[in-house]
Design a protein that fits this description.
- The complex is a heterodimer of chains A (about 400) and B (about 260).
- Chain A is mostly helical and about 400 residues long.
- Chain A has a two-stranded antiparallel ribbon.
- Chain A is globular.
- Helices cover about 65% and strands about 0% of the residues of chain A.
- Chain A has two domains: about 270 residues, Up-down Bundle (Cytochrome Bc1 Complex, Chain C); about 110 residues, plastocyanin oxidoreductase (Helix Hairpins, Orthogonal Bundle), CATH 1.10.287.
- Chain B folds into three domains: about 30 residues; about 150 residues, Orthogonal Bundle (Cytochrome Bc1 Complex, Chain D, domain 2), CATH 1.10.760.10; about 30 residues.
- Helix content of chain B is about 45%, strand content about 5%.
- In chain B, helix 2 crosses helix 6 and helix 5 runs antiparallel to helix 6.
- The chains are: A mainly alpha (about 400), B mainly alpha (about 260).
- At the A-B interface, helix 4, helix 5, helix 10 and helix 14 of A face helix 1 and helix 7 of B.
Chain lengths: ~400, ~260
């Protein structure tokens, strides 16, 4: 690649670059050869980076005004909403930012599923991505606890109680997580500490995610290996940066719609009631982005079984590169896989809906079928399909898309 | 290729539908009385005189049981709220007795309220409030509108929802029938009836009028920066749209070099 023989033009630049090659890195990032046929589904990487930074920046400022104490947390959030200059804006960006972050990450993940971006040689990118996703869920969950409203408190109670299902040591682990015998002030303060800390781990993983991406280079909509650099690639800057920026602007318009015109639509009204250990809300539901997993958890009548299935549903994703053995990456050339892809999306949406409904009667039955199908997709359909599916002919290069 | 692009848009549609469905699960109830509030919509603002009347209803009726501990008297004079004048706010605050101290002798003392004081609560604590109200705590009203499904419509419906209980409906002592309350049973007696207050601005104090005014006041109390939020939002979105168009045009121009190579 051309950046290998990059030489800074100024004398100081050369002196500095010999000692710490930041300029070489910057040249690499600019010239990084990117497939020219990337569509808008590929812009979510940039959008997600923006989301992470926006969450960190607003979060750091909110942290200056927030008080992590069971008696003061709720009021300090209201203090931010009422008395801190533009505090309402910071908090609404941060709260809706979490939802937008998850919306973007779900699109990003399903894009990888559709175009087979997790396949060799990109397994490590995929695994790091999944770790980021799992950490995001942990971070978001702990963030939701901080306002110390009714859903904060009871959500924390339900989720931390899951660990009590572990045989023998479960009860001790739960007590250790709580820092006491119930969710209380020690739980809140450690959640605040971890909620502040984990995003920086995520940031580190994002850097590794991008690093791992830059080794094989981007996958692309037709999913073939391309020569880099070549007629099929463009330099990352200015071509991809311009396109990513345009997509980010569109994303920001939707984001702003939520922030300014319906900032509470994605939250639960009960979280504006201060936490009360004596009153249990009639329905305890997590935020929308965790609902599919909540449905899987509740679809098993046994607590330990539910917890195991919940974790299995996540870890199964990590194994995906080895479950789908098809050599063809892009679903465009996989006529049967394509249908199962859309079925999986439908399945996850159904799970999400069932997660918001009470776990009883028909809802529970549908949730169970959808849970079974989720595992069927990854454990049976994908491995089976890899061996029987007759794929369509794949083009040789992006510039010559026809092979016939 | 065409159908595949169509499918792509489909998934976004799916996601958005899902988002709005899931929010509706938490957020609204179709059976409520729907009011066309002045503060709804992207340019919505509070009706200033309605806010002032609403404060009067809160002060003369609700505040005998319901606290509003997150608000300060100064908020009544701030922009985007009832916007009472500074003199009015000082006068309102001075009507309340606030415990302060300790003074130099180490004694607690009572003084007239100042604009910087929080709204004085009717009861010293939750237990006292519950004890005085048949064991049921009258909820703090500071963020009540945001803490109930259906928001302002719910509060309004509840105020208008008192009725005689249907034939055969069992009501315990000290419990009232309400069409919109969960389980149709409410401990609060019907709070508003024609002429409960005499409006300073001469508006006729009908039940509907008072319910609307006090609900507007509570909506503002829960979201005091709503007007600033709407105003900023319109500006931000216009700015973003203009910038998006410029970014789009630059991108098209840049990519035309690549596209023409093909």
């Amino acid at each position: 690649m051309s950046e290998d023989n990059y030489v800074p033009s100024s004398k100081f630049g050369k002196w500095f670059n010999d000692r710490l090659p930041l300029l070489t890195l910057s040249a690499h990032l600019r010239e990084y050869p990117t497939p020219k046929n990337l569509n808008y589904w590929w812009t979510f990487g940039g959008i997600l980076t923006f989301c992470l930074i926006a969450q960190i920046v607003t979060g750091v400022v909110l942290g200056m005004h927030y008080v992590a104490h069971a008696d003061m947390a709720f009021d300090s959030v209201e203090h931010i909403m009422r008395d801190v200059n533009y505090g309402w804006l910071l908090r609404y960006i941060h709260a809706n930012g979490a939802s937008m972050f998850f919306l973007a990450v779900y699109i990003h993940i399903f894009r990888a599923l559709f175009y087979g971006s997790y396949k060799s040689p990109r397994e490590v990118i995929w695994i790091i991505g999944m770790l980021i996703y799992i950490l995001m869920m942990a971070t978001a969950f702990m963030g939701y606890v901080l306002p110390w409203g009714q859903m904060s408190f009871w959500g924390a109670t339900v989720i931390t109680n899951l660990f009590s299902a572990i045989p023998l040591v479960g009860e001790s682990i739960t007590t250790w997580l709580w820092g006491g015998y119930a969710v209380d002030n020690p739980t809140l303060t450690r959640f605040f500490s971890l909620h502040y800390f984990l995003p920086f781990i995520i940031l580190g993983l994002v850097i590794l995610h991008i690093w791992a991406l830059h080794i094989p280079g981007n996958n692309n909509p037709i999913g073939i290996e391309i020569k880099k650099p070549s007629k099929d690639t463009v330099p990352f800057h200015p071509y991809i940066t311009a396109k990513d920026l345009f997509a980010l602007m569109l994303f920001l318009i939707i984001f702003s719609g939520f922030i300014f015109f319906s900032p509470n639509i994605l939250g639960h009204p009960d979280n504006y009631i201060p936490a009360n250990p004596m009153i249990t809300p009639s329905h305890i539901v997590p935020e929308w982005y965790l609902l599919p997993f909540y449905a899987i958890l509740r679809s098993v009548p046994d607590k330990l079984g539910g917890v195991l299935l919940l974790f299995a549903s996540l870890f199964i994703l990590i194994a995906l590169p080895w479950l789908d053995r098809s050599k063809v990456r892009s679903a465009i050339f996989r006529p049967i896989y394509k249908n199962f892809f859309w079925l999986l999306i439908l399945d996850v949406l159904v799970l999400g809906y069932m997660g918001a409904m009470p776990a009883e009667g028909t809802y529970l039955l549908i949730a169970r079928i959808a849970t079974a199908y989720y595992f069927l997709h990854f454990l049976v359909i994908l491995p089976f399909l890899s061996s029987v599916e007759k794929t369509d002919p794949v083009p040789i290069s992006i510039s010559e898309p026809v092979l016939k | 290729m065409k159908t595949y692009i169509f499918k792509n848009n489909f998934i976004i549609g799916f996601f958005l539908t899902f988002l709005f469905c899931s929010s509706n699960l938490y957020g609204s109830d179709t059976k409520l009385i729907k009011v066309d509030w002045s503060f709804n919509g992207i340019t919505g603002k509070f009706d200033r005189s309605s806010l002032q009347r609403g404060y009067q209803v809160y002060n003369e009726v609700c505040s005998s049981c319901h606290s509003m501990r997150l608000l300060s008297y100064r908020n009544l004079g701030e922009k985007g709220g009832p916007e009472f004048s500074i003199e009015q706010v000082k006068a309102i605050a001075s009507n309340f007795e606030v415990q302060d101290g300790p003074n130099e002798e180490g004694e607690m003392f009572v003084r007239p309220g100042r604009p910087s004081d929080k709204f004085v609560s009717p009861y010293p604590n939750v237990q006292a409030a519950s004890a005085a109200n048949g064991g049921s705590y009258p909820p703090d009203m500071s963020v009540l509108v945001k803490a109930r499904k259906g928001g302002a419509d719910y509060i309004y419906s509840l105020l208008m929802g008192y009725d005689n209980s249907p034939e055969g409906f069992e009501l315990e002592e000290g419990v009232h029938y309400n069409k919109y309350m969960d389980g149709n049973k409410i401990k609060m007696a019907k709070p508003l009836s024609e002429g409960s207050v005499t409006y300073a601005d001469g508006t006729k104090a009908t039940e509907t009028q008072m319910a609307k005014d006090v609900t507007t006041f509570l909506a503002w109390a829960a979201e005091p920066h709503l007007e600033a939020r709407h105003k900023t939002g319109v500006r931000v979105i216009i700015f973003l749209i203009v910038l998006t168009i410029l970014v789009y045009l630059s991108m098209k121009r840049l990519w035309s070099r690549i596209d023409s190579e093909q």
